[in-house]
Amino acid sequence: MLRPPSHPASQPARIRPAGVVTVTPSSPASNPVRGHPRRISRALMLRRPWFPAAAAARPGLGPGSLRWLEAWLRAVDGLGLGPDAMLAAVSTIQIFVHGSVAYEVAQRAAGYDAKTWLAAQGAYGDSIIASGAHPTLIRIMVEAEGPHRADQNERLFAYGLRQVLDGLAAALPEA
């Protein structure tokens, strides 16, 4: 059973009741922890663009950081993982969230706009397609819709997080 950690600012180190959840990879309801990093951590870090770099450079051990870590560890407690595996699972999720947000923050700081960039690459993209030299890339360039979506970063984050959590869920010991 995976339980979502609550927001530490509202309920320090408490777990929001979620009941028993059967964990199966790729099942949308299988992993309630999903909402925590998407809803809280990503939004929080996007509002504080300095946070991903600071968190990577020096893990915080202040009261707020300890509440967050406690909440994360409680979310994976009781899943049959040993202490090292619990730390590894939490670290894996946090590294994905921090890295994803740091990438998005860097894009924003550089003034990157996907629509403008794609338009500027039009002639080059046409030459890549005309060359026929990279058939898989060409197929993706022609068929992919994601790069043209306004919510590209949100969708990439949700997809990546789902893959990370499904991978972790698949590696859980049999109950």
From TrEMBL:
Region (Disordered) location: 1-35
Source species, domain of life: Bacteria
Protein name per UniProt: Tetracycline repressor TetR C-terminal domain-containing protein
Keyword Transcription regulation: yes
UniProt KW keywords: Transcription, Transcription regulation
Alphabetical list of Gene3D superfamilies matching this protein: Tetracycline Repressor, domain 2
Lineage of the species this protein comes from: Bacteria, Bacillati, Actinomycetota, Actinomycetes, Streptosporangiales
Biological source species: Microbispora siamensis
Domain Tetracycline repressor TetR C-terminal span(s) in chain numbering: 41-171
